[in-house]
Amino acid sequence: MRIGTIELAAPVVLAPMAGVTNAPFRSLCREFGPGLVYVNEMVMATALVYGNAKTDRMVQFGAGESPRSLQLYGSNPDMVGAAVSRLGDEGRVDHIDLNFGCPAAKVTRRGGGAAVPAKPRVLAAVLGAAVRAATPFGIPVTAKFRVGLFDSLRTHVQTGRIAADQGIAAVALHARTAEQHYAGDADWAMIGELKAAVTEIPVLGNGDIWEAADAVRMMAETGCDGVVVGRGCLGRPWLFGHLLDALSGRPVAPSPDLGVVRTIMARHGQMLAAHCGEEMAMRDFRKHTSWYLTGYPVGGDIRRRLAMVSSLGQLDDLLGELDPSLLVVPGGERIRRGHTNGPIRVALPDGYLDHLDDDTMPDDGDVLALSGG
Ligand SMILES: Cc1cc2nc3c(=O)[nH]c(=O)nc-3n(C[C@H](O)[C@H](O)[C@H](O)COP(=O)(O)O)c2cc1C
């Protein structure tokens, strides 16, 4: 599969996950699955345009990382265009993904994020502005979105068509509505519908790929061209190796024993510390410890202590207490991790749905940080 000029070893993309898919996490995943696309944490177009130290730190790629893939959030065409131009001028990225799936009330109540696809003219303007700004630099732009705001307003097919018409290089569908948030199962039939309607660019399916066999099944059931994998790789970076094997028709190894897992945990902790300093790294790594141990019957005490880890030395000591021979419990790979909450009440501007052909651009020019999509 290709995204613009980027050729992938297998049709697999790491989902952008705010607070997770930073340079160390991507490079750890890439060690298991070379040749795939690993998308950076989402950054705000506004913060990039106005220059924001935290955002600049977030737009960091590993030495030799290729492709350098970044997700941008923005709902205003001028702002998104300016952010893309800046990234292009500074030669900072090889691929830009646009996020139209963010259900945060802070943005949807102003018509931004997941509310944008409900207004086709606004959506087309944002997509078009990004593509026009990226084209001189040869940067492919992709778009990621949900099925719609609610079941009664499904917009995925229309969104995919508009994206293809605006020159978007590939689309990815998280097969849930904004209202659903992360509850229930992703509705893969929606991915099939999108694929049937959008034939000129790759269509990627997203939602509930926990094991490599799920990716094979999603592609077979929906006809999609590739997959985007989020929560399934939390605490399981080796999933990308499993995905490469499964999609190349090779046998897939079982999940590693805890001895291997703790070696990977130690390495992840060290990589994070080299990236942002030991103190911040350990604070960030706490959430990863619970994901790494999901499905391994280690007991609550060590989980609690790892969830408070504050130094690399302490991490090593605690990892040393884990029984290396423990195996994941049957079905442990499928235990949900990361976000699981929902449904939510979607916040929208008053009367937002009364005129869907309206082209008033949302003003989220002061949104400098968001915590996910
Ligand atoms: C911690 C976390 C942060 C996320 N942040 C983003 C984000 O910044 N941008 C985005 O498009 N999606 C974000 N998502 C959604 C994922 O990219 C993905 O669409 C969703 O988790 C469904 O896929 P999965 O079932 O493979 O996890 C986030 C998900 C999680 C769990």
Entry keywords:
single chain, 373 residues, alpha/beta, eight-stranded parallel barrel, two-stranded antiparallel sheet, 14 helices, 12 strands, 39% helix, 13% strand, globular, binds flavin mononucleotide
Summed up, what is this model?
By secondary structure, the protein is an alpha/beta fold. It is 39% helix and 13% strand.
Tell me the layout of helices and strands.
Blueprint: E1 2-3, E2 6-7, E3 12-14, H1 23-32, E4 37-44, H2 45-50, H3 53-58, E5 69-73, H4 77-89, E6 95-100, H5 105-108, H6 120-134, E7 141-146, E8 148-150, E9 153-154, H7 156-165, E10 170-174, H8 188-197, E11 203-206, H9 212-222, E12 226-229, H10 239-247, H11 258-276, H12 278-293, H13 300-306, H14 312-320
Parallel strand pairs: 3-4, 3-12, 4-5, 5-6, 6-7, 7-10, 10-11, 11-12
Antiparallel strand pairs: 1-2, 8-9
Oligomer: single chain
Biggest sheet details: 8 strands, parallel, barrel
Radius of gyration: 20 Å
In spatial order, strands of the major sheet run 3-4-5-6-7-10-11-12
What is the typical, i.e. mean, pLDDT? Answer: 96
First and last CA, distance: 25 Å
